[in-house]
Specification:
The model has no long low-confidence stretch (mean pLDDT 95). The strands form two sheets. A three-stranded parallel β-sheet has the order 1-2-3. By secondary structure, the chain is mainly α. Helix 1 links the parallel strand 1 and strand 2. The longest helix has 30 residues. It folds into two domains: 205 residues, 3-Layer(aba) Sandwich (Rossmann fold), CATH 3.40.50.620; 88 residues, Orthogonal Bundle (Tyrosyl-Transfer RNA Synthetase). The protein is 55% helix and 7% strand. It is globular. The protein has 13 helices and five strands. Bound molecules: tryptophanyl-5'AMP (TYM). Tryptophanyl-5'AMP binds next to strand 1, helix 1 and helix 7. Tryptophanyl-5'AMP (TYM) binds next to strand 1, helix 1 and helix 7.
Length: 333
Amino acid sequence: MSEDKKVIFSGIQPSGNLTIGNYFGAIKNWVKLQDKYDCYYCVVDLHAITVRQEPKDIRRRTLEVLATYIASGVDPEKNTLFIQSHVSAHAEAGWLLNCNTYIGELNRMTQFKDKSQRYGESVSAGLLTYPVLMAADILLYNADLVPVGNDQKQHLELTRDIANRFNNTYSPTFKIPDPYIPKEGARIMDLQNPSKKMSKSSDNPNSYILIMDTPDIIRKKINRAVTDSLGVVKYSDDQPGVKNLMNILSVATGRNVNDIEKEYEKLGYAEFKKDVAEAIIREIEPVQNKVKDLLNNKEYLESIYKNGAEKANYVARKMLSKMQRKIGFVASR
Ligand code: TYM
């Protein structure tokens, strides 16, 4: 790790099985960044418990998410990979930043508004303050860039506001991070309702494709994906289902949507969907095989997350002490 490399931080919640939205919107881009930047990639288990999780499921999924990072090409030798709860500074810094965040700001977060509608009165306080924990994740490492999908943009803006406020109140402490949102794949939509983003927490399994779905299931889900009655493969907002499938084909193959439009000019949706499914399978089958291998080697995974936590702890503790000092806490040592 060289001192002058810019720092990157990002993470994924182990709150459900990962979808191709997580893959194309986040992980695939992380791989492209690993040589140029000093990257911290975290499995954010503290975030996942903002909604109820079965203990055995979150335990299993935490390792699965870590295995998926590595299987997708995020090299543990080049990046710091760790589990959020192993670095207690995240929760502590989260508290300090909570006291520098306004309820009004949190109430405006669209993700909170959506989710709280779903859970009604029993929505946890954690779900409201979740973006503050995300700010703590990022600011503890003085990250320059945060590679995420489009849905996290608002949380990043809040992170910047919180950082600026802390800097203005207590003197410059944090770098102001920028979002790093890919041109393609930033918003993979729900296959059944293409006006919504594809989400691992959806109730309808036909609306998403999981990274670990079998080839047959992928073919079935793409086949059932909602399109329209126009029958032309065209990249248009009037055809959101087709547009989404074109985006998926584009990120899976690296081809641009104009070429795709030309190729399918005279072909129907059946042919097009078949190719979309095969392109996804070609991209993720090798990842699936590696995930399975890695999950059979728990010792290896353990060595990665322990080593990662050690490195992350060192950096995060230093920043946490700085924050505490600026706030006026008496030093403990
Ligand atoms: P999460 O776990 O919901 O999603 C992880 C990443 O996947 C991206 N993503 C998508 N991209 C394109 N299309 C989609 N349909 C799609 N669905 C998800 C997300 O944008 C994200 O990049 N709050 C974060 C996790 C987090 C975090 C952080 C991220 C916690 N601390 C610090 C960055 C930095 C979240 O819930 O992501």
